[in-house]
Design goal:
Layout: H1 2-22, H2 28-49, H3 55-68, H4 72-83, E1 95-98, H5 100-104, H6 107-112, H7 114-120, E2 124-127, E3 131-133, E4 144-150, H8 157-169, E5 173-179, E6 182-184, H9 188-194, H10 198-201, E7 206-207, H11 211-217, E8 232-235, E9 240-243, E10 250-252, H12 258-273, E11 278-282, H13 299-315, E12 320-323, H14 329-332, E13 348-350, H15 352-364, H16 368-375, E14 385-389, H17 402-407, H18 412-423, E15 435-439, E16 446-449, H19 452-455, H20 464-483, E17 487-491, H21 524-527, H22 536-553, E18 564-567, E19 573-578, E20 585-590, E21 596-599, H23 600-604, E22 612-613, E23 618-619, E24 626-629, E25 634-638
Parallel strand pairs: 1-2, 1-17, 2-5, 5-11, 11-12, 12-13, 13-14, 14-17
Antiparallel strand pairs: 3-4, 6-10, 7-9, 8-9, 15-16, 18-19, 19-20, 20-25, 21-24, 22-23, 22-25
Helix pairs in contact: 1-2, 1-3, 2-13, 3-12, 3-13, 12-13, 15-16, 15-20, 20-22
Bound molecules: alpha-D-glucopyranose.
């Protein structure tokens, strides 16, 4: 109670401060109305992490400055999105992720390729890190040295704003990465710290000797055990050990310092004012450290996100956040908001578990583990959505739970090891062509690199039939991604069945990091074949285009309702059931290369009526009381035709 009174009192003082800062801005009443709506979220987050005096005033000033710099066009966009806050949850929301240079050389080049994206039905484009990174190896741009400048060979901040306008006109929203756990050692803050400025030293986590680092290391995992062992790096200038979760040239920020918070509110609003619609909070799980833990998913992470989210909502309400938290499913849901944070943190989060379970089911030709694991993921707030995906720019880590495995009589460690063998192609039953990424000597874990097409077997397929089987596998996997609910994120090149880039190591900075194997350049000449149904590219493209078209027509795929995942009496068949007032949708998937059948009632208990399969527009009729599913069948069963 006492706390509430303090918050309310400081809220009204800050409101007055905001009103003063807004001055005669024509939208001042709107901004103040948004303060009334979301200010309490902001204050609650601040109270949890930044009780220091004066932080609220600074945040309010940043909000007012962000609003002042917002263009009339973006203010209109804000008003539109306030009226349709579910834009990213709708069935017509379709995502695409690409490196700007690999897709089209420059930001202006991307503008010229917008027609390709529009034809495909894309409404959301994630351009991989494009803010100025450190020179040389920079973790694919995730070591940023200047957040207010675009990588020079890609263009300028003005080009970014122009691209955002072009995309908006084409009905496409723009997502950029916000790397907030760390900066490059070349960032001005890090340089100032090295030069001895105590203000900037306090932007980082620096320890004079090994005492504290050793204490933390006792419970810290290693993200890159091969190329960056340990979590601390000695720096001569600082005369200390600096926290470096990822590479030694990525310095973790001290998020307990309110100056860091304020810097990032400024950066967020600047990007928002360039027309960015969604910020992908990179490695957000790591931003808060606590001794004796793995320093991930700490409660403060969500309070900090709540502050950032509320500030953006007040100054630039059309912007949403996407959490990149590659963590256990039980931890993951908190990024979309649990308890007091429900609906107040990120709007989107990657569904890492769905991705892993798809690959696991395809390798094992068994979907029981998927049903167990996905049924355990708690529901998410109805105003949020998953980002569903099959591949991204990162490796695949086998986030498979020992308990889930035990439930179906499997050993977790053995299954993870099987998956690594399978997808690196060393298992005798493997169809895949991937490579091992980072081997952890302690746990034996090996992650996997490779494009979707190479991992489903297109590279190894010897004849036309095997190639078609591989495409069917890819389509089944993508049907799950497009059918689960939430925004499906197509990874550049998957629509053309692009294989691994075996020459990735020819670029010196990429040679040690085989994730570049699945970050190929867009082969625009090959893309020409996309409308030729007699080619592999054409068949794949048509399959993806069909998934997109059908998805758009099914209101039941709106993210506000959850997907229930059910095992069936056949281990290879799994059901995704979506109950929606517009009509239920029952998806049936056969993850094996054999024809299988299940009793009709196993589908029928999820609803009655004629069963039209929406992807093929065929009526599915049981034979002798059983539904017969061909190899890799992916059925989206609806009550009416669409
Ligand atoms: C995220 C990125 C990954 C990067 C890491 C560190 O996980 O997806 O590519 O290495 O953050 O920034």
């Amino acid at each position: 109670m006492a706390d509430d009174r303090v918050t309310a009192a400081s809220g009204s003082v800050l409101r007055e401060h905001l009103a003063g800062q807004l001055g005669s801005d024509p939208d001042a009443p709107d901004v103040l109305a948004r303060w009334d709506r979301w200010g309490p979220d902001l204050l609650a987050g601040l109270a949890e992490v930044y009780p220091q005096p004066g932080v609220g005033e600074r945040v309010v000033e940043l909000i007012a400055a962000g609003n002042a710099a917002r263009s009339p066009r973006l203010r209109d966009r804000d008003r539109d999105r306030i009226l349709s806050p579910d834009w990213f949850q709708r069935p017509d929301a379709i995502g695409y992720a690409a490196y700007a240079d690999r897709f089209a050389d420059t930001l202006n080049g991307v503008s010229e390729r917008v027609g390709y994206l529009r034809d495909l039905g894309i409404t959301y484009l994630h351009l991989m890190p494009l803010l100025a990174p450190r020179p040389g190896d920079n973790d694919g741009g995730y070591a940023v040295m200047d957040y207010r400048r675009v990588r020079p060979d890609l263009g300028t901040m003005d080009d970014l704003a122009d691209l955002a306008t072009t995309l908006h006109d084409a009905g496409i929203s723009l997502t950029l990465d916000l790397v907030l756990n760390h900066v490059a050692t070349e960032h001005a803050w890090a340089s100032a710290a090295r030069a001895g400025d105590p203000k900037y030293r306090d932007y980082f986590l620096v320890y004079p000797d090994r005492r504290e680092p050793d204490a933390y290391e006792a419970s810290l995992p290693e993200v890159f055990p091969n190329f960056a062992p340990g979590n601390f790096t000695w720096n001569d200038d600082l005369r200390g050990w600096v926290w470096t979760t990822f590479n030694e040239w990525q310095w973790d920020l001290n998020w307990a310092n309110p100056d860091v918070l304020c810097e990032f509110i400024g950066i967020i609003l600047e990007l928002a004012n360039r027309g960015v619609d969604c910020l992908r909070l990179d490695a957000i799980a790591f931003v808060w450290k606590r001794l004796g833990t793995d320093c991930q998913n700490q409660p403060e992470v969500h309070a900090i996100t709540q502050v950032l989210r509320a500030a953006a909502r007040i100054a630039a309400p059309s912007v949403v956040f996407k959490a990149e938290a590659i963590v256990a499913p039980r931890q993951l849901v908190a990024y979309l908001g649990r308890g007091t944070h429900a609906g107040r943190v990120s709007d989107l989060a990657y569904h890492n578990s769905l991705m892993v379970q798809i690959w696991s089911a395809l390798a094992a030709q068994d979907a029981r583990l998927m049903a167990v694991a996905l049924s355990r993921v708690p529901d998410i707030p109805t105003t949020t959505a998953w980002g569903t995906y099959l591949r991204c720019h990162d490796d695949i880590g086998w986030a498979i739970d020992d308990q889930d495995c035990a439930e179906i009589g499997w050993n977790g460690w053995a299954h993870r090891s099987f998956l690594s063998d399978f997808y690196t192609g060393s298992h005798p039953a493997s169809f895949a062509q991937g490579a091992a990424f980072q081997q952890n000597a302690v746990t034996g874990d090996r992650r996997v690199s490779g494009t979707a097409a190479s991992l489903v077997g297109l590279g190894r397929a010897g004849n036309a039939e095997q190639r078609q089987t591989a495409i069917d596998r890819l389509m089944l996997a993508y049907a799950m991604v497009f059918g689960f609910g939430g925004i499906p994120l197509l990874y550049m090149g998957d629509e053309l069945a692009l294989r691994n880039d075996d020459d990735y190591h020819l670029v010196a900075e990429h040679a040690d990091d085989n994730r570049w194997m699945h970050r190929p350049r867009m082969p625009w000449d090959l893309a020409e074949q996309r409308h030729s149904p007699d080619t592999e590219v054409g068949r794949t493209f048509a399959g993806i285009a069909r998934l997109i078209a059908v998805r758009r027509s099914l209101e039941s795929l709106h993210a506000a309702v959850p997907t229930r995942v059910h095992a069936t009496s056949n281990p290879a068949v799994v059901l995704f059931v979506r109950r929606h007032p517009s009509g239920d949708l029952v998806q049936a998937y056969n993850v094996s290369d054999s024809q299988v059948s299940i009793p009709a009632w196993e589908i029928e208990i999820h609803g009655t009526g004629p069963r039209i399969e929406a992807l093929s527009q065929r009526e599915m009729v049981p034979v002798d009381g059983r539904y017969v599913l061909p190899p890799y069948a992916a059925w989206w069963l609806t009550a009416q035709g669409h």
